[in-house]
Amino acid sequence: SVSFLFFPQVLLLTCAEDLGCVPGFQQKVFYIEQPFEFTEDQPVLNLEFDDCKGNSKLNFEVSNPDFKVERDGSLVALKNISEAGRALFVHARSEHAEDMAEILIVGPNEKHGALKEIFKIEGNLGIPRQKRAILATPILIPENQRPPFPRSVGKVISSEGAEGAKFRLSGKGVDQDPKGIFRINEISGDVSVTRALDREAIANYELEVEVTDISGKTIDGPVRLDISVIDQNDNRPMFKEGPYVGHVMEGSPTGTTVMRMTAFDADDSSTDNALLRYNILKQTPTKPSPNMFYIDPEKGDIVTVVSPVLLDRETMETPKYELVIEAKDMGGLDVGLTGTATATILIDDKNDHPPEFTKKEFQATVKEGVTGVIVNLTVGDRDDPATGAWRAVYTIINGNPGQSFEIHTNPQTNEGMLSVVKPLDYEISAFHTLLIKVENEDPLIPDIAYGPSSTATVQITVEDVNEGPVFHPNPMTVTKQENIPVGSVVLTVNATDPDTLQHQTIRYSVYKDPAGWLEINPTNGTIGTTAVLDRESPYVQNNIYTALFLAIDSGNPPATGTGTLHITLEDVNDNVPSLYPTLAKVCEDAKDLRVVVLGASDKDLHPNTDPFKFELSKQSGPEKLWRITKLNNTHAQVILLQNLKKANYNIPISVTDSGKPPLTNNTELKLQVCSCKKSKMDCSATDALHISITLILLSLFSLFCKSFL
């Protein structure tokens, strides 16, 4: 049977079971009407828990931290509360049993409606009947329960009394992965769990319950059965985003935020199990104060708590601090679980110290004519060497009108490397004085300025050296015709000694004369020819012949200067043209009697070259055998006037250039008349007669005939 028990503002639903002791809450579901306000320390209702073994070490936990359950089972509010939500869950655990009770909070007009959802009263019999045949109230199960398993966690009720009717449970956790976590007694409707649950893996299960007949056919349902896993504090806070590195500028005001540390707790974020509080466990180093920083216990923000004076990077033992940060759940209570991480805080440098020269005056000595670094200027700077607040920038502000000096920063030592970039001349100035300033790459902070120590003087002494004579001009150029007579004067060179304070004499000599054409007077520097200058020589490039000469002073040791002479050679017509090719072949039965195209070339330059004139020397005999035809300024064609017998023939040809006066080259073209069969040419001259013999015979025959007549 089913009965209703009414208390002030409380409706209890009970089912008459057997009279034996059942461990757990004797009533699992409560409906209470939402009051205007839950009053502090006023009982809301009484919960009865019995583990059937004396309730040793009984402890209650309420899902809403604003409520608690007294030892006698009274549910009371810890403060005045106007809104507590729609439900409360109470978890009870003793040495021998644990269970969960559900308290549903409804409005004044919802109480009877909520009951009518479960029961419907018919007639005057007072016998309740379920609106639906299956009643499946939500089940709450704490995670991490200890064995033994399976253990009962709830019950499903059905008014369907058909013979052979059975309960069937399905869904994720039953017949879907993860399978086998829950099961139901087919007859009684008791729901049990087979192993410990992990809320962080699955927090809620949505199952379905239905009633089937003996054949397995559904006769009622399915009805949803919600199972919620109650969180336990079984996860420590974890710092997942490391490494944690923060920066703060030296001299920052007290309360400057450096960084934020945030930990993660896998427990239920709506409970104290995941309510984190932060604390600094250790600071290294502990100077100049053991409490340089503070962490906001709720937000995790790390801020400075010392005065700006103490936050001075240059006076610190080290600009790096390490803080061991602890995160504790349960709102920081002693029972909370903890996790730690290390925060590294770097004190960043600002440019509050200008660079200063280590001395006011530097000395340097350099030989004239030499370039390169002559002195390193040293400075001191107390700022961080890894920043622009330490790196120095040097500037020459006076004494460098000719831009003979430059200064650059050595990136490793921060020294100023002063260099000579244009050779100095002792005869012009033996001493130089430079004024140099040093600054930082980064600007100084507003209340700091560069002082007198940021400038220095450099005294430079130039040492005299014996410098070699200098040719004027250099290189020297002159134009001459090739083939001028041997002994002709080409040029008289001039070299002077830059050492004007020393009285020295100069001697001249040939240094490099590739063709051996020149000589120089050692005293007055006159250059003359010792051989014919030939523009067509391989030693001449682009019509220019190059030779080198030395001027040597009388110093000890003597110094030498080198002068370059370029002679541009003008062309004269001193080369006859040459003919190519000098050999031609033709078949004795050839139909095309154009034997060969001849070309002419000349080593001289225009106008001493083309156009060329091609001619045949006078042909002997009664008939002419060939002729030559000009094709263009440089080429002509030799043509046979008739087919010739197999033999070797020499054709005399003359070619004349256009020079004034012109030059002629008389040469011979060797012509081989060959037998040609099946695309093979046979030019062997075994039975061939030289053309000159043939011509002699023809001449003799002609004379014989004339005599006979």
Automatic annotation (TrEMBL):
Keywords: Calcium, Cell adhesion, Cell membrane, Cleavage on pair of basic residues, Cytoplasm, Glycoprotein, GPI-anchor, Lipoprotein, Membrane, Metal-binding, Repeat, Signal
Pfam families for this protein: Cadherin, Cadherin_pro
Domain of life: Eukaryota
GO biological process, one term: cell-cell junction assembly
Domain Cadherin intervals: 166-239, 240-357, 358-471, 472-579, 578-689
Signal sequence range: 1-16
Functional note: Cadherins are calcium-dependent cell adhesion proteins. They preferentially interact with themselves in a homophilic manner in connecting cells; cadherins may thus contribute to the sorting of heterogeneous cell types. May act as a negative regulator of neural cell growth.
Descriptive protein name: Cadherin-13
